[in-house]
Every structure is written in structure tokens, then in C-alpha cells.
Amino acid sequence: MSKELNFIKENPMGFLATTDESGKPRVRGWGIMIDEENRIVFGTSNKKKVFRQLKANPHAEWIAMAKDYSTLRVSGDVVFEEDMQTKLNIIEKTPVIKKLYTGREDELEIFYLENIEYDWFEMKMEFQKK
Question: What is the distance between the alpha carbons of residues 80 and 71, in angstroms, rounded to a whole number?
Fold first, then answer.
């Protein structure tokens, strides 16, 4: 597994950035996962504004920070998963999604990124004693 995917597995909570209908940025906290194909996978409801934003402008960026203040920014093209069995597998394997979407499977939208670009920032904090 790549350095980037390992970082994401260790730091799955971050922030997802999209743009709204007027082109203004929108950022919200977002947890992600890595699937069996090593894709970075997101989930949302098709009732939410973020779903409509991603349909209108299918480009997104997600960022996470580790305890040492290293950050990884991941950007790419959004691809929605159409296969219901894949969605059901994710529901079954992910406790939070299972709690939210059991009985509402038709609302769940799974998406992943293609044409990914990674951008690292590693802060080397060295403090001198006075």
C-alpha cells in the first residue's frame, strides 16, 4: 500500500471541499475509507446539498492532518458508484453507514476519486530550549 493510502488509513477523518451553485467554496468534516480496490471512498445522502454540488461540479478535494501536523491533500474527479451490491457491501462493513442507511439504502450515494493528485505538507516542529 502506498504512503498516501497508509496515511489515509491512519487518519480517516478530514475535510471535504466542494463548490456551491454560485462557485463559493464549501468545506465540511468528512470521514473516508479505502475499499478492496484501494480506492478512496466517500459516502453521502442523495438528499444533501453536497450531493447536488458534486453532481454539478464533479471535482473535490479532501484533506486530513496527523498528530504530528503532517497533512495530505487529495484532489480528483468524482465518480459515483452505481452498483447496488457495492453499496450494500459498504453498508455491511461500515458501522456508521450501517446505522445511518439501513432501510434507506436508496438514499446512499457512494463515490470515489479518479485522476487523483496528492499534495503533502510535513511540518517539522523543532523547538529550542531557552
Answer: 26
The answer to pTM > 0.70 is yes
CA 66 → CA 12, 17, 18, distances in Å? Answer: 10, 18, 22
Q: By CB neighbour count within 10 A (0-12 exposed, 13-18 middle, 19+ buried), where does 16 fall?
A: buried
Euclidean distance between CA atoms 24 and 72, whole angstroms: 22
| Strands of the chain, DSSP E | 13-19, 25-31, 33-34, 40-45, 59-65, 71-80, 108-121
What are the beta bridge partners of residue 75? 61, 117
Q: How far is CA 125 from CA 80, 98, 113, in A?
A: 39, 40, 32
Residues 15-24 have pLDDT tens digits of 999 999 999 9
CA distance 7 to 58: 24
Provide the 10 A C-beta neighbour count for residue 24. Answer: 8
Give 65's strand partners: 71
